[in-house]
Amino acid sequence: MTQEEILAILHVDNLDEVEDALELELFELKKSILAKPLLRLTLKSKLVRLNQLAGIAESRQLFQNQENLSFDYNLVESDEVLVLWEGYMKAKSHWKMLFTRTQSPLGLSAILEEGLKMEIAFSSQFQALDWMDEEPVFGVEPDPMLIQNGLKEASRNGWITFRDLEKNKGELEKDLLLAIKRLSLLPKYLKP
């Protein structure tokens, strides 16, 4: 990559500003990614940008000593929705911690891909339920504590499986109902 290309991509005037501009852009990308659900469709442009920034980092020999963090999680299998949710939240929290700690563009791309795989693995366990006709809104990540508390309340009422929740959907909090619907539809939005 030429010096002119690097300056144009990062919108800086001289090469002394490249490292700071690259770090700032990576910070902003991470902040944006963490604020929204992990969906391949909405992450395409960010993955393209990370690859572009990786080219700059490589040509400027930045992030050479970055360790590759591996993302491992235990896929919980259960008929109990609360158990699935807790496993999902634990894995997602671990993924967010690794993503936040990763500094290099290539490392971020790799962890992002692992996060998408995790989302597919967990969401495929959430049954596809046709509770409403309209499509879900994916713009904002649901509040995990509201969902967790809603699932705990449902569990106290003896509603522990998806079928139990479906039978009693009129008694569920709206946030919980929308989150379960979102999770049940998520697999079709995650696959390439």
Would you give an account of this structure?
There is one protein chain. The longest helix has 21 residues, at 81-101. This protein is 63% helix and 0% strand. α2 runs antiparallel to α3, α3 (40-59) packs antiparallel against α5 (105-123) and α4 (81-101) packs antiparallel against α6. It starts with a helix and ends with a helix. The model has no long low-confidence stretch (mean pLDDT 85). With 192 residues, the protein is an all-alpha fold. The protein has helices at 3-10, 18-34, 40-59, 81-101, 105-123, 144-156, 162-167, 174-190. It has 8 helices and no strands. It is elongated and about 65 Å long.
Q: Classify the oligomer.
A: single chain
Structure classification: mainly alpha
Q: In DSSP terms, counting alpha (H) and pi (I) runs of 4 or more, how many helices?
A: 8
Radius of gyration: 20 Å
Annotation, overall tally of beta strands: 0
Percentage of residues in helical conformation: 55-70%
Low-pLDDT ranges: none
Instruction: Give average pLDDT, whole number.
Output: 85
Q: Span from first to last CA?
A: 29 Å
Tell me the fraction of residues in β-strands, as a range.
under 5%
Major pleated sheet: none
Shape category? elongated
- The succession of helices and strands, N to C, reads HHHHHHHH
